[in-house]
Write a sequence for this structure.
């Protein structure tokens, strides 16, 4: 998924602070357009004003449930990525992925699309022809650590993820490990991501890695985390050192549980690139614009075939130098 803002802010992320983390911090989403002139609106909780990351999770968009009957739905033209993994997860509907490696994959609810950008890849995402009436899901990014940020790009689709079921609900492990269930998805730092489905009026207790920091993204109404209400689209950051968390819901509820070892590196995230310096990001932008103008399939980002509209142009770089700073804006 693309950050299609034409004046993207410099996002200063990464770096561990030694100050005590809060017991809980509510991160409210901001509404941003996705997909240009026919944009659908999404809620973005990461990066947030004061907290940019949860482990290596550096970007989280939540959308729907949106009524897209008779409408284009999601339409994101070809765009580039570097230094990250994109994680596509649906609760309802379907999205067609195409990338410059030649992969074409329809993702449905309960299936994971995982694209590792590495040194450079481009892709498009769209609601396919004849799509259903509802679209509901999340798109997340994972920052790659420095030694792997230039790996060869690759794509994974996992349609059979581990699911743990109990009377209180169920847990689907997207990435990493939770309660002994291990996802087959490739990871580059210690992290986990899981969808938690909660039975109406019940509470589901889950174990946590004490070395991880965690957060819960509410994907439906009436979600509570350790008894605290969390509104749909909001994220409750839980800090580190917890051994368990309890998720509840008044009605049938769904949430994403994210966690990971705090990301020790300082990074710059601008538009669709994750890098370590202004020069690195500026070079990625230049390479994308050169390849986009020429349509050269052997360029750094390749070419996406099959999407009906032109690739996205990169926004202009800000006048000031992009600088890598800490993962939070709070003083250490």
């Amino acid at each position: 998924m693309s950050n299609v803002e034409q004046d993207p802010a410099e996002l200063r992320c990464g770096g561990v602070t030694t100050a005590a983390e809060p017991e809980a911090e509510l991160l409210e989403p901001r509404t941003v357009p996705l997909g240009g002139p026919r944009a659908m609106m999404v809620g973005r909780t990461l990066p947030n004003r004061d907290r940019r990351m949860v482990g290596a999770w550096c970007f989280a968009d939540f959308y729907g449930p949106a009524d897209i009957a008779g409408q284009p739905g999601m339409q994101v033209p070809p765009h580039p990525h570097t230094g990250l993994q994109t994680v596509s997860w649906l609760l309802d509907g379907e999205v067609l992925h195409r990338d410059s490696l030649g992969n074409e994959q329809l993702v449905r609810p309960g299936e994971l699309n995982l694209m590792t950008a590495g040194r450079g890849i481009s892709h498009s995402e769209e609601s396919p022809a004849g799509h259903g009436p509802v679209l509901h899901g999340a798109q997340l990014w994972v920052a790659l650590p420095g030694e792997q940020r230039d790996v060869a790009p690759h794509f994974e689709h996992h349609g059979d993820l581990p699911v743990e079921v109990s009377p209180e609900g169920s847990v689907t492990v997207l990435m990493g490990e939770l309660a002994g269930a291990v996802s087959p998805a490739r990871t580059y730092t210690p992290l986990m991501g899981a969808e938690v489905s909660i039975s109406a009026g019940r509470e589901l207790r889950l174990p946590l890695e004490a070395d991880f920091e965690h957060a819960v993204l509410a994907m439906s109404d009436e979600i509570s985390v350790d008894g605290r209400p969390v509104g749909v689209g909001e994220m409750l950051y839980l800090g580190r050192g917890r051994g368990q968390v309890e998720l509840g819901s008044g009605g049938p509820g769904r949430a994403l549980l994210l966690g990971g070892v705090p990301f020790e590196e300082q990074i710059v995230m601008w538009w669709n690139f994750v890098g370590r310096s202004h020069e690195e990001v500026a070079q990625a932008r230049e390479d994308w614009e050169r390849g986009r103008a020429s349509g050269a399939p052997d360029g750094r980002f390749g070419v996406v075939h099959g999407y009906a509209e032109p690739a996205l142009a990169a926004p202009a770089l800000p006048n000031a130098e992009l600088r890598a700073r800490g993962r939070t804006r709070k003083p250490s």
